[in-house]
Specification:
Helices cover about 40% and strands about 20% of the residues. The chain is of the alpha/beta class and about 325 residues long. The chain folds into three domains: about 90 residues, Arc Repressor Mutant, subunit A (Orthogonal Bundle), CATH 1.10.10.10; about 90 residues, D-Maltodextrin-Binding Protein, domain 2 (3-Layer(aba) Sandwich); about 100 residues, D-Maltodextrin-Binding Protein, domain 2. Strand 1 and strand 2 form a beta hairpin. Helix 6 crosses helix 10. The longest helix has 23 residues. The termini are far apart. InterPro entries: LysR-type_TF_proteobact-type, LysR_HTH_N, LysR_subst-bd, WH-like_DNA-bd_sf, WH_DNA-bd_sf. One of its GO terms (molecular function) is DNA-binding transcription factor activity. Belongs to the LysR transcriptional regulatory family.
Length: about 325
């Protein structure tokens, strides 16, 4: 009973310590967690030590190089996340009775989509709901929504995880483009297999099989292994290389809409494309959260017809 009394004496402090514990476990670093949460490393260490005393177990194994969660810590982490989710769920259940949304939204997305579209849209959402807190993380890999504790992941392409809830934001596609100068020098491919004879600008997206382009056309889907001398994990870079005449690129139509309108790029193999819809993905346990639902609807509205909308119609034959 002594531990229980110590833990529950101040529930607010206990919940903050659980949040801190979960944050350190996700980051694998006391320093990174303390920096992101605006706390001193010494304060973080003190709070975790107190939590360990209260629970009667060691949560972390610390060395000079890394921090890892112990086996007891893994069990505690599951309990902590469940407790925090339940507390937040209770607050969300009554959110529609309040005039203002509040709380933290943790959102992840890709570099290009985040910088050009999602981040300014979230700033607009914050203006409407000033009590909301927003953490946006830009990743060049697919986010582990549950493991990394994201509320929403805004992604392009297929949603393959069966335990996640997918909300379609925008219907879109990836298309093939090159500069007029490149087409004049090398000619345009006539069918997908011709791409093997061309310089292809490789972009490592969050979910793509690198160096293999899957294209759907009049004769169904084809997979073509392509090669090129330059590659990047940032679409801005490969689009710029394409405009400079270095090769053929496959990117989302909204990523090259301005370049197509300006004549800097032209479509090649216009009868072929790759489905690349934009989705907002959430964990099933969070799908009923009022705060998350409002954010998803706002993202959908703004990505389709707001000032930072994704242009997927009226260019490149679409």
């Amino acid at each position: 009973m002594q531990n229980q009394n110590a833990l529950t004496a101040t529930n607010e402090s206990f919940l903050r310590d659980l949040q801190l514990f979960c944050h350190i476990a996700r980051r694998g670093s006391f320093v990174a967690a303390s920096t992101e949460m605006g706390l001193s490393p010494s304060h973080v260490s003190k709070r975790i030590a107190m939590l360990e005393v209260g629970l009667g177990v060691k949560l972390f194994q610390r060395t000079t190089r890394r921090v890892s969660v112990t086996s007891d810590g893994e069990a505690a982490l599951q309990w902590a996340q469940r407790i925090l989710d339940d507390v937040q769920g209770m607050a969300d259940a009554f959110a529609d009775r309040r005039t203002e949304l509040s709380g933290l939204l943790r959102i992840s997305t890709s570099l290009r989509l985040g910088r050009k579209h999602v981040s300014p849209i979230l700033a607009m959402l914050r203006e409407r709901h000033p009590n909301l807190e927003i953490w946006l993380e830009l990743l060049d890999r697919r986010a582990d929504v549950v493991g990394e504790n994201f509320d929403i992941d805004v992604r392009v392409g297929e949603v393959q995880e069966p335990h996640l809830i997918a909300h379609k934001m925008v219907e879109s596609a990836r298309i093939l483009c090159a500069s007029p100068a490149y087409v004049e020098r090398h000619g345009a491919p006539v069918e997908p297999n011709d791409l093997t004879a061309h310089d292809c600008l490789l972009f490592r997206g969050r979910d793509d099989r690198f160096g293999v382009w899957r294209l759907t056309g009049p004769d169904g889907e084809k997979s073509v292994k392509v090669t090129g001398s330059v590659a990047s994990n940032l679409s801005d870079i490969v689009v710029q290389w394409a405009k400079q005449g270095y090769g053929i690129v496959m990117v989302s139509i909204w990523d090259v809409a301005e370049s197509l309108r300006a004549g800097e790029l032209v479509r090649v193999l216009p009868d072929y494309q790759q489905s690349a819809d934009v989705w907002a993905v959430t964990a099933e346990r969070l799908s009923s959260s009022a705060r998350i639902q409002v954010c998803i609807e706002f993202l959908r509205e703004q990505l389709t017809r707001g000032p930072y909308a994704l242009v997927t119609r009226g260019v490149g034959g679409f």
